[in-house]
Design a protein that fits this description.
alpha/beta; Rossmann fold; Arc Repressor Mutant, subunit A; five-stranded parallel beta sheet; four-stranded antiparallel beta sheet
Length: 232
């Protein structure tokens, strides 16, 4: 079945060219030229939408506002598009739940490749409604209660370990670089060594993945980073 993409962009020429390219690649394409209409269209068609391409600078409601509203009502993958190559924007988008970030001008072939990568990631059906509870296999992370359970084991984590695990399970299947994890867990002002991520991943593995008989959930992609997923 063909995937459906919601393209949210206010440049008419870009909408037309991307729509043509996407349809040539057998995507179904929905379009919106402002933030308010994009949210309304998503709420109406969210069961059909597999991916959103979201411009940062939009009339009526900017891309970050659209991102926040959509993430409250669904977990569809989102790639941000923007002419602003500012690190703060990228970090803000990623922290709010964007799956990727492409700076204009971009090569259409690269964008299509990024779309394919995002669509191949496991769906995030581990989030149960809006109760703040995330599940993957027999791992349960309750954000509101600050509780982690693996099978029949209640696991005690430090605040930093919990925040790191929460970031990984919220986007299970995604491979995070060290820099991405530092920005989202330690903050953009962190001035320590990036190897601190390796240390805390080891802490998590010792608590999450060393339980006899349980599947390994924390994975390393050599030269790239870390992910949380059931299958490797």
């Amino acid at each position: 079945m063909n995937k459906t993409v919601l393209l949210v962009e206010d440049e008419i020429g870009l909408i037309d060219s991307l729509k043509t390219e996407f349809e040539f690649e057998n995507y179904n394409v929905l379009t919106s030229a402002n933030g308010i209409d994009a949210v309304d269209l998503f709420l109406k068609e969210r069961d059909k939408i597999d991916l959103i391409l979201l411009d940062w600078m939009l009339p009526k409601l900017d891309g970050l506002g659209v991102l926040r509203r959509i993430k409250k009502d669904g977990d569809v993958p989102i790639i941000m598009l923007t002419a602003r190559d500012y690190t703060g924007d990228k970090v803000a988008g990623l922290l709010e739940g964007a799956d990727d970030y492409v700076t204009k001008p971009f090569d259409t072939e690269e964008l299509l490749a990024r779309m394919e990568v995002v669509l191949r990631r496991p769906s995030s059906n581990h989030l149960q409604g809006n109760d703040g509870v995330y599940r993957l296999d027999d791992l349960i992370v309750d954000n509101d209660k600050h509780q982690v359970i693996r099978g029949s084991h209640n696991i005690q984590l430090t605040q930093r370990e919990f925040n790191l695990l929460l970031e990984l399970i919220k986007h299970s299947g995604k491979t995070f670089t060290r820099d991405e994890l530092i920005n989202s867990v330690w903050g953009v002002d962190f001035d320590g060594l990036p190897t601190v991520v390796d240390v805390y991943i080891r802490y998590l593995r010792n608590k999450i993945d060393r339980i006899p008989g349980e599947n390994k959930l924390i994975h390393t992609t050599r030269g790239v980073g870390y992910s949380l997923s059931l299958n490797r």
